[in-house]
Amino acid sequence: MTQSELIARLTSRYPQLIQKDTELVVAEILDAIQMTLAQGNRVEIRGFGTFSLNYRSPRIGRNPKTGESVSVPERWVPHFKAGKPLRERVDRLGTSGTIK
């Protein structure tokens, strides 16, 4: 699901909301998550999951095209860990992709 699909779904589910308001709310939520992670903190949404940062140390990688060694610098990368209710709901998915 893309951000625009999320906005469309919320707008159709809650007709009292104007699409512009829904766009603003979604943008504010995503911006708050980004800002919190950029400050080095974690975001926990109960029943959904936790956004945090993982540290990746510097290493030597390889350019797949040339095989040449390349230095990959250290970095912090966003990480998402699903909460228990989300994991259980996804586990109930059938092969058809619908929730049982």
Automatic annotation (TrEMBL):
Signal peptide: none annotated. Heterodimer of an alpha and a beta chain. The lineage of its organism: Bacteria, Pseudomonadati, Pseudomonadota, Betaproteobacteria, Nitrosomonadales. It comes from Sulfuriferula plumbiphila. The keyword Methyltransferase does not apply. SMART domains: BHL. This is Integration host factor subunit beta. GO terms for molecular function: DNA binding; structural constituent of chromatin. InterPro entries: Hist_DNA-bd, Histone-like_DNA-bd_CS, IHF-like_DNA-bd_dom_sf, IHF_beta. Gene3D superfamilies: IHF-like DNA-binding proteins (4.10.520.10). Belongs to the bacterial histone-like protein family. Keywords: DNA recombination, DNA-binding, Transcription, Transcription regulation, Translation regulation. PANTHER family: DNA-BINDING PROTEIN HU, INTEGRATION HOST FACTOR SUBUNIT BETA. One of its GO terms (cellular component) is chromosome.
